[in-house]
Amino acid sequence: MWTQFLALVWRDILSEFRAREVVVGMAVMALLTLLIFNFAFDLSGAQRVASGSGAFWVAVVFATLLGLGRSASLDRQEGAWDGVLLSPVERPVVFLAKLSSMLVFVVLVELVALVVMALLFDLPVFRPGVLLVLALGTLGLCTLGTLFSVMTAQARAREVLLPALLFPLAIPVVIGAVRAMVLELSGFGADAGPWKSLLAGFAMLFLALSVATFGVVTEE
Amino acid sequence: MTAWEAAESTTEPVLEVTSLTKRYGWRTALGGVSFRLWAGECLLILGPNGSGKTTLVRLLVGLARPSSGTIVWFGREVAPVPLEVRQRLGVVMHRTMLDPELTVFENLSYYARLYRIPDATERIQTVTSWLGIEERLRERVRQLSRGFQQRVALARAVLHRPSVLLLDEPDTGLDRASRARVLDLLRAHRERGGAVLMTTHALDFALEAATRALYLERGRIVYEASNQESLRMLAATASNTVPV
């Protein structure tokens, strides 16, 4: 099982390393979003933390959405996805491998976005509490996104369907992540506990649901 | 011996399809198709465009779900197709199922790991030399011609020593010499007791490989040829309707 899991992740990462069709697009989207928000908001005083956190998560959501769509589309280009479905690999392993590849791509983009955020918004982002919020929020978002990107990949209107399905269900994750990040960046990390619990709860719930339903989702 | 191997070693057919139907909304792509595939035979599925050949292959390998009817692989009804059956099927579809950014070796090595082939490197050398692509192992798939890509797709399909080959137009893009290699490969596969189910529009290629043929029209089997004479008659009929 591990061999198959690693093979699936290895192919995704190697293919992306050579083509650079997913991560570069995601990074550009994230950076442009941060830049626009930087000009749009008043970054002096108390609003800086709230604006910065909100801008960061909007950038992450847009970039993730772009990456999910592009990754699913590349998978289907030469029927490589059919090749995965035809091979003797358990569906949960396929899901966890796709999720892991997506997490690698999103975390890479987030690291770049964090540096830019730190510079533009002058915020101390590289704190353990902030990174924990980032990890939990990213896991929840990517889990849901990976499931829906596979579900909508065969649909004709997939570009519309994916955000239409993902955004409403990702709202609790995004709200929780923004609130927790604001508290962490304001120096009230201890008060962020309930928000982090919410993020962890949603991430686990989405993960369990996705693993359980992925077999059905991959059927025609 | 596993239960699957035990089932195969009996006189039961490798594959038994009964009243298989696939509907897309109001349109019936396949309507009540029944047939059997035995070990050691090469069953050819002929028919004009849109007759349901590709739909049939997709149903058999589990990429689509039947609207009704049953598919019995190795003596057991399967829906969806379980891992044990997937391990024993080698499939070539219209698209190559290869990653264009990876080299030939990387693609085959990737599938070798998905199919848990123990002697992967040695096996890759063997199948690529059968298909005449051993010189291209280090080239990226996107740099290869369609014919070479098709040969890599065939190498991928036979890599894990499958019992049954399901080939949807495997001759796409192949020149005469490559077709001869593929015919040799199919013959060797059958001689080892493997079975082949193949769709094609290349009738000369098909006649060389097939032991039996079914002719599909509008999703139904309208003719079956089970000897060389009836195969040639079918081919003559098909050549008037099938774009070659």
Question: Would you kindly provide a written description of the structure presented here, covering whatever features stand out?
Answer:
The complex is a heterodimer of chains A (220) and B (244). With 220 residues, chain A is mainly α. Chain A is 83% helix and 0% strand. Chain A has 8 helices and no strands. In chain A, helix 2 runs antiparallel to helix 3 and helix 6 packs antiparallel against helix 7. The mean pLDDT of chain A is 91. With 244 residues, chain B is α/β, with parallel strands linked by helices. Chain B contains 9 helices and 10 strands. The radius of gyration of chain B is 18 Å and the shape is globular. The N and C termini of chain B lie far apart (44 Å).
Topology:
The complex is a heterodimer of chains A (220) and B (244).
Chain A: H1 2-19, H2 23-40, H3 47-76, H4 80-86, H5 91-121, H6 128-152, H7 158-185, H8 193-217
Helix pairs in contact in A: 1-5, 2-3, 2-5, 3-5, 3-6, 3-7, 5-6, 5-8, 6-7, 6-8, 7-8
Chain B: H1 3-9, E1 15-24, E2 27-37, E3 42-46, H2 53-61, E4 68-73, E5 76-77, H3 83-87, E6 89-92, H4 104-114, H5 120-130, H6 146-158, E7 164-168, H7 176-191, E8 195-199, H8 203-209, E9 212-217, E10 220-225, H9 228-241
Parallel strand pairs in B: 3-8, 3-9, 6-7, 7-8
Antiparallel strand pairs in B: 1-2, 1-4, 4-5, 9-10
Helix amount of chain A: over 70%
Q: What is the succession of H and E elements of chain A?
A: HHHHHHHH
How would the global form of chain B be characterised?
globular
Radius of gyration of chain B: 18 Å
Poorly predicted runs of chain B: 1-8
Provide mean pLDDT of chain A, rounded.
91
The biggest beta sheet of chain B reads: 6 strands, mixed
Helix-strand category of chain B: alpha/beta
Helix content of chain B: 25-40%
Number of helices of chain A: 8
Extended strand count of chain B: 10
Order of helices and strands of chain B: HEEEHEEHEHHHEHEHEEH
Strand proportion of chain A, as a percent range, falls in under 5%
Strand order of the largest sheet of chain B: 6-7-8-3-9-10
- CA-based shape of chain A: globular
